[in-house]
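Regression report. Comparing outputs from two consecutive submissions.

Submission 1:
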Amino acid sequence: MAKNGDTKMEMKSKALRLLQEKSYLLLPILFIIISLFNLILAINHEYWRDEAQAWLIARDCSLTPDSLFTVTSYEGHPFLWFVLLMPFAKLGFPFAGLKYISWSIMTISLLIFLFKVNMLSWLKALICISPIYIGFYTIPARSYSLASLLIICISIVYNKRKEYPILYSLLLSMLLQTLIIMGGFVTALGIAWFVETLICLIKKKADNRTLVKNIIGLTILLASALFLLWELRYTNISSGNNYTLSFFEVIRKLAGQYKYGFEILFGNFFIIAFLLINISIVGLFLINKNARTPLILAGIGIIWQAYIYAFVYPNSNHRLLTWIYMLVFVLIVSYNNLTITHSSNNIFISIIIISLLLSWNYIYTNDIVNDLKQDMAYSYSNEVANTINALPEDAIILSLSQVRDTSVIAQLNKKRLVYNVLTGQEASFIDRNPANSNVLSIDEFFEQVQSQFPHDKNIYAIVANDECDVIGIEEYIQQPHPNISIVYESPHKHITEDFTLIAIYNK
């Protein structure tokens, strides 16, 4: 009987090896196709204010407590993405290159996933053609691309963390300094690692050199966590009356956010995806003991995000795709520990991976299609910037909305200065410090222009059509007035970013 069992096992192993060998061209071809498609998306992508915000922060901030590390507090974002962009922004690289930085990071992440992860080629192929590698983290060009790379690296190093504790620590620390929403996941990994180290220390299961490396690694991670708390020292996370909620009400809200997350990710198929993925997760937990700890860690990461979305700020954009990345972490780690005799694990993992393809019903999927349409526009910031760049060199440009105008400011020529109408200082990134927020009436605005630029004739103002610091200016400029004229007007109104550029005539 044992002989027959061994024979069956050898046949299965041979079949798997044969399947892997036959698919050796699949991954390189897939890598090229996905990378080129993402590049096409990047080329067609229109920048908008959040991308410009990070670039302007990197360009105009210094690495000091009263500069970048005060901005991070009001931004609610850690410093790493800004620091990564600093060499490019400060050395005068064009803002247009930002999306290629993001594309390069995602391409490296894809490369590592396809050729360094221990998993059957067809399973990896199914994962990489899901939304986590096509479009959404390549564009828009934000810190999600860096998080993708770091999560995949952590997934690969996780089972080798005893061999490379310093590398593991650095990866965790960098992820913590990339996205706040990954804080629960990183904290869970760190605590699990601390407990493992403590057990090894008590039971003397590791040599002194290994223990020292682990302690150094944990110290680095702790330092990163403490530094993050200092970075966010001015962040207001008040959630109103949420502190009065009972324990069961909190659980209900968290469960609601978990369900809502599936609705966003899987659209009309969220019930099918919800059942298939959660049942397979339970099955994986019961059958594969090596998957239990990773599943708990990923679960804590998802609960942390659900808490943020329920009580701190609502979910939007592409944050929920990090749920799939945490799930991929579990699959990579679990697959590394599989043996051929535990075929049920393969079934559960395959079901989860196939279910991930249903995430193409993701609420933002149309963004990819629309980015490729020539007549589709999300932002007219580039058109406004080109109009301003063509103005006389002595033109005075005023920004009337620090919240909306960043995408225009980032795309102007280097020598072209724009002034914040509220402060009279050079306009740059959004100052989210509530103490510095203000508005002007139309009369106050024209009085300020007259007082600040009494002898200047070439004065222009950027008017964001949905949100301005000058109350009522959008309606005012639509009527004929002797002190203004319209120089440029976006052809479509009330899209994500549309503008009017006006000329102002001093008395």
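Submission 2:
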Amino acid sequence: MMTKWHKVLFHGVASFVFMLFLSHCASSPNPSAPNDVLEPVTGDETSSQTLPPNPTYQKLMEIFQGLGYEGFGMQFESEATLEILVQAFSNPHAANRQIRLVYTGLATSYEPKAQSLTIGGLRDANAVLAFIEKHVPLKPHPTTPE
């Protein structure tokens, strides 16, 4: 009959052996994998794969720069998403907020410590603005020395 202590010891040893096995498998090369999967890249092949300039993206980046926000990954968004973001951040209610970084993602959220705003899952500019007004605080007004 196993006591509680024996069960804990048994599970600890079993977990250690399993982790040891996984680390061995992860470090072992796969002999069935082909070695010539990747081809060398020449200089002129990469230049043709850059994204063409998008005027809506450029406008959004200008808006972010004017507001003091920094947008990441926006060049990969659809035209519809970019237009929603341009409409939302052109609105004066989106200005002067405690935002440093703006991302797009699966869900809309705000991280106060990093002053990071993620926009996702919202289908129009009014929903984005409503979230910003509700969850993102205004920047504090600077006090003037007397």
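Expected: both submissions complete independently.
Actual: both completed, but the second showed a warning that disappeared on reload.
Relevant detail on submission 2: The mean pLDDT is 83.
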